[in-house]
Amino acid sequence: DKTVVHFATHGILRDDRPFDSFLALGGGAGDGRLTAREIYDLDLQADLVVLSACRTGLGRISGDGIAGLTRAFFYAGTPSVMATLWDVADEPTFLLISEFYRSWQRLRDKSRALRAAQLALLRSLRAGQVKVATPAGTFALPEHPVFWAGFVLVGEP
User: What is residue 35's three-state secondary structure?
Assistant: First the structure.
């Protein structure tokens, strides 16, 4: 059995104050933010953390890597983090993540599963099968890398 912590939310990265970068979790008793500082204090026993939010794989570059959300999750104990390098669109992200989980069950390798999911999404885009509804009508998304290449796996494959 694999243990996954999946965040499908907004992420805000603060290059000027990396420990104040956060995932927006909504209301409740606190301010609705899970900050990098708070993540460092967690004790995660997860095989994978998926940050399905915009630009979650970025951060300030220092001598020992990128100071941001991915590093915080590594420190908290997860060996692998899947994050994004830019703003991602909802429909292709849903398709990619769904295929990633199916492929991971079949292949038992996170990096190969991400590659398989990206290739499957690219094939669907090329075939004109990924469509979005807008006020001006329904349109097929192009095969541009912005739709399929934004997710990266960091850590153990």
Answer: strand
**Of how many residues is the chain composed?**
157
- pTM to 2 decimals? 0.87
Which sign does the torsion angle of CA 76, 87, 151, 91 carry?
A: positive
Helix (H, G, I), strand (E, B) or coil at 135: coil
DSSP string for 44-86: ---SEEEE-STTTT--EEETTEEESHHHHHHHHT-SEEEEESS
Cβ neighbours of 42 (radius 10 Å): 16
Find tokens 């941001």 and name the residue: 68
pLDDT tens series, the chain, 157 aa: 789 999 988 888 887 888 888 888 876 667 888 999 999 999 999 999 999 876 665 555 444 445 578 889 999 999 999 998 888 888 999 999 999 999 999 999 999 999 999 999 999 999 999 999 999 999 999 999 999 999 999 999 8
C-alpha count within 13 angstroms, C-beta hemisphere, residue 96 = 27
Q: Give the chain's end-to-end CA distance (angstroms, integer).
A: 16
